Structure formats: structure tokens, C-alpha cells
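Example record for the data management plan.
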Amino acid sequence: MNHKLHCLLTALLGAALLVCGCGSGTGSPAKEAGKVFHYGTMAYGPAMQNASTDPHDTYCGWSTVRYGVGETLFKFDKEMNVQPWLAESYTQVDDHTLKLKLRDDITFSNGKKVTGEAVKACLEDLIRRNDRAPHDLKIDKITADGQTVTLHSSEKVPALIYYLADPYGAIIDMKAGIQDRIAVGTGPYVAIKVDDRGLELKKNENYWGQTKPKMDKIIVRSITDGDSLSLAMQSGELDAVQGLPYASLSNFRDTSKYKISSTATSRVYQAAMNFKTPALQDSRVRQAITLALDKDKFVSVLLNGNGVAATGAFPDTTPYGKGLNGPQYNPEQAKALLKEAGYTNTTSDGYVTKDGQPLTLRWLTYTSRQELPLLAEYAQSALKSIGIKLNVNATDNYKEFLKRGDYDIYAQAIVTAPTGDPEYYLMSKIYSGQPYNNGYYSNPQVDVWINELHNTLDRTQRNALAIRIQQQILKDNAVLYASFLKMSFVMKKKVTGFTAHPSDYYEITPELDMP
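Corresponding structural encoding:
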């Protein structure tokens, strides 16, 4: 009862603060000129986006593209096929050279034309400042001639156009610079205020697209408490929300008031084993951990069915995620493996010991994705049942712990196919020595296969290689893949043009309207 009362008070306080932030302080939003869209989300904030629309700064490009500030040269349709966007067409000149023809009618939000030189300057700054782009693109030379941009890579990059659809590739005006964390992009909306609490956007009067933006102003609020987010939507303070707790979705089934748009995504909830941890250098211990978690139970009970149990890194709806054999729930086999690894005694609390020391591991995660604390709580219970003590550190200061290596298992939510191609994830998270290989996993054979993937143009061969690599990751028990996200947007019935997309990128678009 005390816990329930605490949650209720937290929700009421959050809603009150939201009213103060969005409205007049009288319990209803202040009257605002024009058409205004109030959007609440748990997927924004300093922990995830660093509160900026500068796409070259870590993962800030997600905010740039999600909220309609910037656009990329290519984009994904709802089947995750790559399509030209700011680019009109492209030609693969040779294995190392890609020639892009830009649309001739694009302007930045400040009215300046997007030329080849502007794109060249933007991509050069991306490569200079972003920590992932140089590894992905391998571009060593860019030339521009009118509306043509030619990219030359130091090695073959078969997935280059897919990488150019990543939000970090949003095209911005480098001459305008980044002012107060705001970039000048080509999107339907212009950021006028950016801070850790959210963004304020206005209509881009110079938008180049055939469909013009329909809202005069958009207010995006970061609300990381799920109960507060739900209550704010129910009270009418918000027009739409993303990231509601699954238990709250039933509050919005009244079709006379609300609409829900849902889609399955490639955002996987995974836990990387730290190979620098002595205990986890024993494959039997890693395997025991993977056997201890019942993924189907996690999805059906803790996620209320709002997810899909995962085997590998990619959904089996993709051609590179099919036919994998992964660990099946088997706690008795897990216990046997721990005993085989030398953990033969137990403490009075039921934890296994070796040389008099209990098997204790540190689980690092963050809270801005509601599923991650649930996964941590479930993992703690499941591992206790086989004799492993798990100390959970759920903090939005997780990057500091990552830098120090202060963890044994790192659980995160990551979109594994943001480019519609398997290489992106495998190169950044699995390849030896990469900065985002948080488990320090290193298998020379896997590296050889990833290199082969990197140099293979044929799609069928690429898919087969990706499956082979994942199967080895599973054999090595290097990463525990728990589930894939089913993303849902809840909105007032009058909202139109607001649809969940499987890429998890495009949210605020020119089609958004409240007639």
C-alpha cells in the first residue's frame, strides 16, 4: 500500500509540474496562438539525446530527425527499404565511389538552398566530430559540383546508402552553426528552444516538401516517469504520448477519445557480458545466465505482451534474423553448469560460492527506457534462483560507469537495424575493439566474417553471413538477447498523420495535424 501511495503521489506531482510547464497554472493549458501540438515522451532527455538537435553530437541526430528538424539523404519506408529523400538518385561508380544527385528544390529552414557544397561541408563535419560515422562510412574524400556530391571511401562500403539514412546524417547548414544547441536543418519544423526538459518547435515557412507542415507550434516534453506521462495524457494536457508504461495502455482503449498506433521494431533489449570480468571469462557461467531467463515470461507478464521474445540481434521478420538457434529456458541445466564451473557450495542465502567467494555480478542499465528496469528486476530474481547474486545499478549516469568499466553485465535498448542492414550493429557492437563493443567481446573468426560482410555486395550472401555471425555470438554466450520492442503512440482521436514507424525515427512529420 505504501508503494502504491508513493506511485500515486509521484504521478500527481508530475502532472502538476507538467501543468506548470505547459499551461497557465490554473489546471488547463494557456491559450496559444495558432495550432499547437503538445507531445510527451520518455525517449528524450540528457541521458539519451544530450538535449540537442546537433546530429553530429553522439546520438542527438535522433532528436533532429524524430522531431522534424532535419532530414537525411535517404530514408526508410515502412518495409525498411531505403529510398532517396534529399538525394534524388545515386550511382555506384565503382566499389569505392558513390555519386549522389541532390534534389534541386531543397532549402534549409533559413531559406538558403541546399547545394552540393553545403552537403559536403556537413558530411565532413560529421566525420570529424561524430564517434561512429568514421567507422561506418570510411569516407576519405568528398567532392561537390553543383547538385552532385561524390563520396570516395577508403574501402568497400556496400551499406553506404543505408548508413546515410542514419539520423547522424541529417543535413544541416554548417555556415549557420549550432546556436544554443539548435541546428538549422531542412525539416518541416524549426527548433526555437532546446533544453533538458524538451523542445519547442515552430512551422518551417520555407519547407521545400510538397506537403507543408500543418501545425504552427509543437511542444515536446521529456517526462521520464511513466505514471506522470499517463496522467498528463488522461488530463488532456498532452495531445499525444510515446513510451507509456504497458500497464497504462488499457486506460486509452476508448476509441471515442483516443487512438493508438503500434508497430514492431528492431529495438532489442540486450545484455552484453563483460569479458574482462574473471567469472564471465568462463563460458559455462555466461551460458548459465542465458539459460536462467524465461524470455517468453518476461514478454507476456512483465511487458504485458508488448514485445517479442528475441533469439538473436535481429527480428525473425528480417531476412538476416531467421533460423537461429538460441538458449532455451532451463534453470536446472544452468545450475549444473555453475557446479561444473566450480561453484559447488552455497551461502545461507542460497548463492553459489567458489573458493569461499559468492558469485556476485554487477548489472548496469539506465531508466529512460521503461523496459530496462523491468528486465533488471527480472534478471535479479531469475539469477538468484540459480544461485547468482546480481547487484543492479540502474542509473542515467551509466556512461560514467561504462568509461570506468564498472560493470559485469551491461543491459541496454538498441536499434539493431537502424539502417535496414545487419552490418551496422555487427560492426559497432560485436567487432573487436570498437568503441561501442561494451562487452569487450573478441572472436577472430567473427571478425573475419564481419570483414567479409563488409566487402560483400550480394544481399543474399550478406544475409547468410549475418546469420552465421549471430549463431557464433549465441554459441559464445557473449550477449543475452531478451526481447524486441513493440512501440505504441497514444493520441487524442482528432490527431491525424501521427504514426509509429518501424525505424523508430520519423515522428513529427508534415502530415501531422489536428483538424
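Summary line stored alongside the record: The longest strand covers residues 258-273.
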